[in-house]
Structure formats: C-alpha cells, structure tokens
C-alpha cells in the first residue's frame, strides 16, 4: 500500500510539472503558440489568439493544482479535458496528413513534427 501511495504521488507530481512547464513555455511565447494552434486548422481564425492566451494559464494552474494537491479535483478535471482535446486534435491532424509541429513542448514551427508516437505519449499521460 505504501508503494502505491509513493507511485501515485510521484505520478501526480510528474503530470503536474509537465503541465506547469508547458504552460510556462506557452505563456512566454504567445505569438509562437498562436501559430502552433492555428496550424492545426481546427479553431476558427478569430478565436485562435484568445485560445492561445487563455489555454497556457489553464495549463499552468491545473499543473500547480495537481503537483501541490491544492484543488486537485479541479486540476485533474482540467487536465483530463485538455488531454482529451489534445488527443482529438492530434488524431484529426494525423488523419488529414498535416505536417505540423506539435506545439507541446516548443512553440517553434521547426520543432519535431507530430506523429503517431505523439498520440501514444498523450494517451499514456
């Protein structure tokens, strides 16, 4: 039972840190993140900038909630929602054959391209 609690705590902190990290990357480069979001061609053009400004703060706050345990239920729900949306965006983009960067851990358009491996990674999270 003790091993389970330790593993659960470490997994929770890891997922929290991942979302804190990505939130900070996206907050630091809103223009690059907006370009990454637009490349998926899912959202209407008029909503991309607002989405790219709001989502990183949700990532950061959800990551903090999960990593610290303060507001854990809300943070967990937000992360589940985001991961589901990210999975759908990846599946649609891979199905349509888009050659775009993920925008996950980098806002650079030259970052590694999306692949089915990214889908597996997001599913694992």
Overall description:
The chain is mainly α and 125 residues long. Helices cover 75% and strands 0% of the residues. It is built from 5 helices and no strands. It has helices at 2-28, 30-39, 45-68, 72-95, 116-124. Helix 1 (2-28) runs antiparallel to helix 3, helix 3 (45-68) packs across helix 4 and helix 4 (72-95) runs antiparallel to helix 5. The longest helix is centred in the first third of the chain and has 27 residues, at 2-28. The protein is globular, with a radius of gyration of 15 Å. The relative contact order is 0.15.
Order of helices and strands: HHHHH
Taking pLDDT < 50 over at least 5 consecutive residues as the criterion, the unreliable ranges are none
Give the biggest sheet: none
Find the structural class using helix and strand composition.
mainly alpha
């Amino acid at each position: 039972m003790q091993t389970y609690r330790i593993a659960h705590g470490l997994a929770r902190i890891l997922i929290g840190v991942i979302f804190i990290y990505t939130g900070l990357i996206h907050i630091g480069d809103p223009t690059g993140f907006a370009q990454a979001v637009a490349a998926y061609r899912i959202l209407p053009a008029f909503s991309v900038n607002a989405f790219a400004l709001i989502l990183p703060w949700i990532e950061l706050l959800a990551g903090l909630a999960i990593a610290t345990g303060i507001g854990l239920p809300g943070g967990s729900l937000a992360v589940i929602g985001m991961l589901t949306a990210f999975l759908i965006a990846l599946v649609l983009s891979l199905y349509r054959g888009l050659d775009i960067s993920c925008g996950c851990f980098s806002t650079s358009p030259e970052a590694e391209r999306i692949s089915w491996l990214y889908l597996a990674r997001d599913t694992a999270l």
